[in-house]
Design brief:
Layout lengths: L1 E7 L13 E6 L6 E5 L5 H7 L9 E3 L5 H4 L2 H10 L7 E6 L2 H11 L1 H10 L9 E6 L2 E3 L6 E6 L9 E9 L2 E7 L7 H7 L4 E7 L1 H4 L5 H4 L8 H10 L4 E8 L9 H7 L6 E3 L5 E5 L3
Parallel strand pairs: 3-4, 4-5, 5-6, 10-11, 11-12, 12-13
Antiparallel strand pairs: 1-2, 1-14, 2-3, 7-8, 8-9, 9-10
Helix pairs in contact: 9-10
The structure holds zinc ion (ZN) (2 copies).
Length: about 290
């Protein structure tokens, strides 16, 4: 079984109820558990705290693309993992080409803090260890029992961008979850979805946004998927489950998002999951 926890279902538009884009994919239990964080948006460590996890528990952080809303709290993950562990625990960050440079700049911006803490704490001797792996297509070389692959997605002009697939085998069989990130329907995402069990897809309500007379909003229409497009992607791969996240505009608190669901059902007959932050979906092995 793999579990998917929507840590942050928000977007660049600040919402009091929705943290920034972040999804947790977990496998196994106890000390053997593996936890993969996909994107690190606003408030990610608060939401991780709500599921009794912290930065030290992460097996790796996987970044789908370098838009600010998806990486804004990466600095918090780096620093908090460093100061909350008592032996060196390098943080692995996987992302598209360009991630190394961004992480270098984050580290540079943290330089005063790193100096303060090393000077103040005798047992902190070296800066945070960060291991960045840039990927574009194919296998992601990580330790652990979850097999991770990636493929290019289409979020142009944001380039490059990638989606990730997580394959896990346990005593009951195997299962696979795909995390799309921001993308329009594309071949790379279709290839990741082939034979998988669930797709976590970011969506925007194009039917609402296209009626907002602001060019800044109109600009977002051509590089995201609508609920219908996400549903069509899930249907092409005959996936059992579609999980929507990154709701633009934010779904009001307490609203089950039935209107979002209704936009999917003409295209997709599987299970559709829409939820608030911390909504958790279990994907059983088969
Ligand atoms: Zn984006
Ligand atoms: Zn986004």
């Amino acid at each position: 079984m793999l579990s998917v926890t929507l840590l942050g279902t928000g977007s660049p538009m600040p919402s009091p109820d929705r943290a920034g884009p972040a999804t947790l994919i977990s496998a196994g239990t106890g000390d053997d558990a593996e936890h993969y964080l996909v994107d690190a948006g606003r408030g990610v460590l608060m939401r991780l705290g709500a599921v009794m996890l912290g930065a030290p528990n992460l097996s790796a952080v996987l970044i789908t693309h370098l838009h600010s809303d998806h990486i804004t709290d990466l600095n918090d993950v780096i620093t908090t993992r460093w100061v909350m562990t008592f032996e060196p625990t390098p943080l692995t960050i996987v992302g598209p080409v360009g991630t190394k440079k961004v992480v270098e700049h984050i580290m540079a911006s943290l330089a005063p803090d790193i100096d303060y803490r090393i000077a103040h704490h005798d047992d902190l001797e070296a800066p945070p260890e960060v291991n960045v792996i840039e990927v574009s297509d194919g296998a992601v070389d990580l330790p652990g029992n979850v097999v991770i692959t990636c493929a290019p997605t289409d979020h142009k002009p944001v380039e490059p961008s990638v989606g990730f697939r997580f394959d896990y085998t346990d005593d009951s069989g195997s299962c696979a979850v795909v995390a799309a990130g921001d993308t329009v329907p594309c071949e790379g995402l279709d290839s990741l979805c082939s034979g998988a069990d669930a797709l976590v897809h970011t969506v925007i309500r194009k039917d609402i946004i296209e009626n907002i007379p602001l060019q800044r909003m109109q600009d977002t229409l051509d590089y995201h998927s609508s609920p219908a497009e996400a549903a069509q992607t899930a249907a092409r791969a005959e996936l059992p489950t579609l999980i929507l996240t990154h709701y633009v505009p934010p779904i009001p608190a307490g609203d089950p998002g039935d209107d979002w669901r209704d936009l999917c059902t003409p295209h997709f007959t599987g299970k559709i999951e829409i939820g608030d932050d911390l909504h958790r979906v279990e994907i059983e092995s088969r």
